[in-house]
Amino acid sequence: MTPLSTTPYLETTMLAHTHTSATAFPVDPSTGTLRPLALTEVRIDGGFWAQMQELNASAIIDHCETWMEKVGWIGNFDAAVEGRLPADRRGREFSDSDVYKLLEAMAWEIGRAPNERLDTRLRALVRRIGAAQEADGYLNTRFGRTGQDPRYSDLQWGHELYCYGHLLQAAVARGRTAGDDELVTIARRAADHLCEVFGVGGIESVCGHPEVEMALVEFGRYTGESRYIDQARLFIDRRGHGVLGDIELGQSYFQDETPVRDAEVMRGHAVRAVYLAAGAVDLGVEDDDAELIQAVSGQLARTVARRTYLTGGMGAHHEGESFGADYELPSDRAYSETCAGIGSIMLNYRLLLATGDVTYADMIERTLYNVVATSPAADGKAFYYTNTLHQRVPGSVPSPDEPSPRASSSLRAPWFDVSCCPTNVARTLATLGAYFATSSASGLQVHQYSTGDVSAVLDGGTVAVHVETNYPADGEVRLVVTETLDGEWDLSLRVPAWAETGAQLRVGGEVSEVPAGTTTVRRAFTVGEEIVLSLPMVARWTSPDPRIDALRGQRAVERGPVVLCLESTDVPFDGSVDDLRVTEELSDVDGVVTVSLRSMAARDLAWPYGVDAPELSAEIARVPLVPYHSWANRGPSSMRIWLPVEVDALAS
Amino acid sequence: MTPLSTTPYLETTMLAHTHTSATAFPVDPSTGTLRPLALTEVRIDGGFWAQMQELNASAIIDHCETWMEKVGWIGNFDAAVEGRLPADRRGREFSDSDVYKLLEAMAWEIGRAPNERLDTRLRALVRRIGAAQEADGYLNTRFGRTGQDPRYSDLQWGHELYCYGHLLQAAVARGRTAGDDELVTIARRAADHLCEVFGVGGIESVCGHPEVEMALVEFGRYTGESRYIDQARLFIDRRGHGVLGDIELGQSYFQDETPVRDAEVMRGHAVRAVYLAAGAVDLGVEDDDAELIQAVSGQLARTVARRTYLTGGMGAHHEGESFGADYELPSDRAYSETCAGIGSIMLNYRLLLATGDVTYADMIERTLYNVVATSPAADGKAFYYTNTLHQRVPGSVPSPDEPSPRASSSLRAPWFDVSCCPTNVARTLATLGAYFATSSASGLQVHQYSTGDVSAVLDGGTVAVHVETNYPADGEVRLVVTETLDGEWDLSLRVPAWAETGAQLRVGGEVSEVPAGTTTVRRAFTVGEEIVLSLPMVARWTSPDPRIDALRGQRAVERGPVVLCLESTDVPFDGSVDDLRVTEELSDVDGVVTVSLRSMAARDLAWPYGVDAPELSAEIARVPLVPYHSWANRGPSSMRIWLPVEVDALAS
Q1: What is the ipTM of this complex?
Q2: Ranges of chain B whose pLDDT falls below 70
Q3: How high is the pLDDT of residue B396?
Q4: Residue B527's pLDDT is what?
Q5: B317 to chain A: which residues are within 8 Å by CB?
Q6: In this structure, are strands B35-36 and B42-46 parallel, antiparallel, or unpaired?
């Protein structure tokens, strides 16, 4: 157990990055402790994440495009061009943003694995969008026309700047993978318009949904124009002073009650909170503003310590899709929005680059395996928007033809009225490589483990390693040097926090125990040289902080980075996941994990208080647990991650 | 522990009630197992509820009127008359209803304790309201004028019929306490208009918020006109077939996904659910429709068994102010809206009258002491809208001048944007007497205990008893017969379910143990004869059903009908109510209840999972518990009802 430190970021002077020929960086800070690698520098070839990337390429991206044509969100741009708005507008006020997120996913996917068919579709989409842009750069299908609300008349809820943010991010993706093209031109015109309207002397406000901040910084990095970064600074500094006015959910809903520099912890709408924080880190990095980065890293540390689910999921409340109070983390109705998990990964990645602290990579791993991987169905054609940790009653099958309400969480749905999550999953999976490894002047750091290849240009030349592993099925990660340079360089591997004891490193036949954190081998590597990291991949019990009332008397099982769950499909008795108690037994035979449990005698009382301890069956059943990310792929079921424990086992 | 029976209502032929000269009945069914008593037949003279009634008369009613003048909700009627709508309209779409609930409270209060000043104010209000009624009987300040939405254009959210419902209930209160007057005339015109517009051949829909159903039945009972009851029947039968269309919260939010006859359990918006159920019982009673009453009583039984807080509070979710799933009853952020508690009391009272089953009176008692009594501050000038069972962080002091958001629950607020609760508390306190006792052809039943007098006209003549008690401070209830009749009659007393063992009855010097339920003494009583019921009033531990995850490893303390809580104001250490464990010790010395607890060593971890058992202090502190209804009257505090228990104590 690591004590909470709320200032993991120290005021070290960050090194300016020297650029190589690679350009496909999802995030490309000008300074930082670690350098990002481009999508072309990290190949994921086999195993869990390669399958997910393949699912994205073959199913998810297509699915998103098909649905957005079907529900008319793409058609809104055509309707704008043809003067059919507002009559023919479809979808919520922010639907444009999902078309942009789809574009971004397509652009990164093409950058990762060139695909002419996809490129043609991307260019067709860009043309339809560009046609709808107005002469002054304004672009939004929901506002500004006769019969529509005026431009920028509803900054609280209108999402106009949020939509621009996603447009800019799509343009950065396209620019960095295919060079300046029409999409970049559209984005530049929109960004210039935005800076004019919201710049100094313009409207002194912000968007109800943060997003444009990090997009502006990245667009500034891409174009080399500081005015976009200046505009991001204005937005970051304005926020927190009540500029948006009050709403029934309170100003903290959109983080407008406290400036980002002064806040102690994340609160309000979880996606808004993590997007804002990611933008603040981006700005802090460009401004060399250690205080700002430290403020955000402190907020994240407190949020991880007190307001984050075991899965890495964030956001406890359905109401306001928001964080709860410290230690208020109910499993049932956990909101844990997929987009909040993705935003948390974006934020943790930025802090990893800025600080080099691999605890951020730990959180990325946890969230990837247990939030991002949980969202899509096995066929890539249905998604979770919320990711509950406890499903009491098997859900009903969502309509295959109609969008579902966003907060339905019993079974994955093909589309939602508010469908931010599927396109967010798509762009995340397309950019996965960047999260897996980084470099520095003198070394290569591998943070996430998958079969594949990583290369990096260090100050002394290019180095590369091939990685071979069945991770997370087993814990052995074999790295072979495939390219090296003259002299010594550092190969750093992350030893996850869950591998606190038992991790071993084998270099040149010598085996040593390695502690959690970063383990670095520095030597003059030769091609073919092998380094093997062995992580103790075995199921383990996890107990919750005693202040989390919702989890008292319960334990979860984790195996490596994967959170397991009990699904009713696997339970004998009446298939309930609630009327039972687990014993202390836990077995893991080559990854087949089982727990022992007793069932509670059925009883149906008129009043659920003043109740005796339940009678437990003498018989003990052994029941398999499955990865949480795989649940509900076998039809409607109930499920729980946290398992009630026999009192005897508790006392031990 | 009573096993759950979902059919407490048996198909007995209900007796038609013969009327006496009393008229001040809040509910006046034409048939039923028990007869209601009028407010003039039950006097509450001393003790807890007398103080609450006095608070209502001296503070709460005035407070509601003052605020509704201040925020302009009463002024809306003047603005309507003066043609200043919609420009000058204030408040939410349903604000008219709160003016009507105030009128209802005033009318019952005048009926309970004549008050000329209040009567003058009531008549002045009625004049202002009547002036705004339109020629065809339509009355609503939010719809129908130029610049406003058309009448009945938003049945999902417009609350027009809900407002009529409260108008009709106010008129019934006035009519039954002061006779037909202008308010009754206004209501009759509105009801006739409503029957015309929504009757057979009219708009085939219902109101998004049930309420008008029970109001129409009662107005039909009052006027003797069956057309109002027929209209209620149309509304009850139409609902549940999706007539309102879909909304993001789902059709179950307003109980329009399943007809009331077919539903298994209460779900959706809690106030809507209990109001609808109360109206269905009213209709079932008038129609001699045992099937309908049985459907509702079954739903209530399942709801009480699985979806009700220890306090009697209903509604687990802030989102949608709705019921959760079975056993989903988190203490933190318990919604438990005051109005849902009041609606539950209304429903339980109707079922008590229909069936004679005193378990309904048990639930009324629990809800009165722990929801209704919790809402108003000690000075009657601030209220809880939601009634959380666990406050993690002391709240901030609500604005004394501005309405608060409705769901703020950290400290009582003087008024809310949605302020249904204060006026609901006011009308409930004014009608309290009716809930306390009932009669039948051959006897008098006392259900709730307070110093006061009860009289009833039985078939053989009038009987009366004087009650003397310090209940709930102690458990002795002394009844003296003050009026009797020739021959035998029944005096029935409720022995609460919590007094399962240890209750004693003393009649004529003979003491006998009496079980929970109804205990009846049948004899030819003489004036001055004394009957003493002794209830075991001592603090007791209460354990939750093991399926309530949120309460695992915790126990609550109850004393008689009163739920106790731990308030940070009383806690040594750092004043936290969360970082502690209670032992098995529980002491009750003349009502001063204390528990023993150990504090947990402070620790602040980076990740709240994978945690060792906390270190507990060797030192044990004895800390007082206070009645939950009294909490947060000593400034901002944190609070919890359910106390984490040492593992050793759990095993016992």
Answers
A1: 0.91
A2: 1-20, 408-409, 648-652
A3: 87
A4: 98
A5: 318-319, 333
A6: unpaired
Q: Nearest Cα to A1, choosing from B616, B614, B553?
A: B614
Cα dist. A449→A352, A452, B214, B357 in Å?
Answer: 16, 9, 64, 65
Nearest by Cα to A161 from A229, A201, A216: A216
A5–chain B nearest CA distance, Å? 7
**Pairing mode, strands A489-495 and A443-446:** parallel
Q: What are the chain B neighbours of A552 within 8 Å (beta carbons)?
A: 552-554, 644
The answer to whether residues B263 and B273 touch, using CB atoms and an 8 Å cutoff, is no
- Determine the Cα–Cα distance for residues B557 and B539; give it in Å rounded to an integer: 6
pLDDT tens, position by position, B420-471: 999 999 999 999 999 999 999 999 999 999 999 999 999 999 999 999 999 9
Quick: pLDDT tens for B617-640: 899 999 999 999 999 999 999 999
Q: Could you give the C-alpha distances from B189 to B133, B168, B192, B216, in angstroms and in order?
A: 9, 10, 5, 13
Structural contact between residues B71 and B448, judged by C-beta atoms closer than 8 angstroms: no
CB pairs under 8 A between A and B: 200
Q: Is A310 on the interface with B (CB under 8 A)?
A: yes
Rounded Cα distance, B61 and A169, in Å: 57
Give the integer Cα–Cα distance in Å for A8 and A440. 19
**Which residues touch B120 (CB under 8 Å, ≥6 apart)?**
none
Residue A498, both tokens: 């869950």
Is A300:A347 a contact under the CB 8 Å cutoff?
Answer: yes
Out of A4, A326, A542, name the one closest to residue B605 (CB).
Answer: A4
pLDDT at res. B574: 78
Neighbours of B652 (CB within 10 A): 9
The pair of three-digit structure tokens given for residue A153, joined into one six-digit string = 């008349």
Give the residue from B549, B562, B628 with the most A CB atoms within 10 Å of its CB, the best one to mutate.
B549
**A305 with B607: Cβ contact below 8 A:** yes
Residue A447 CA, chain-centre distance (Å), reads: 16
Pair of tokens at residue A163: 């939509």
**What is the pTM (predicted TM-score) of this model?**
0.94
A622 has pLDDT over 70: yes
Phi-psi region of A355 (alpha: psi -120 to 50; beta: other; left: phi over 0): alpha
Between CA B258 and CA B240 the distance in angstroms is 4
Place of tokens 């009448």: B151
State both tokens at A508: 């040149």
Residue with token string 């002391």 = B394
How large is the C-alpha radius of gyration of chain B? Answer: 25
**Which chain A residue's Cα is nearest to B251?**
A405
Nearest to residue A137, comparing CAs of A81, A189, A215?
A189
Chain A residues with CB-CB distance to B310 below 8 A: 609
For helices A420-430 and A338-355, angle between their N-to-C axes, nearest 10 degrees? 30
The full DSSP string for B14-68 is: PEEPPP-S----SS--SEESSEE--TTTEEEEESHHHHHHHHIIIIIHHHHHHHH
**CA separation, residue B484 to residues B71, B445, B533 (Å):** 52, 14, 20
Q: For A93-138, what is each residue's pLDDT tens digit?
A: 999 999 999 999 999 999 999 999 999 999 999 999 999 999 999 9
CB contact (8 A) between residue A550 and residue B545 = no
Cα distances (angstroms) measured from residue A215 to each of A96, A219, A457, B378, B439: 16, 6, 27, 53, 73
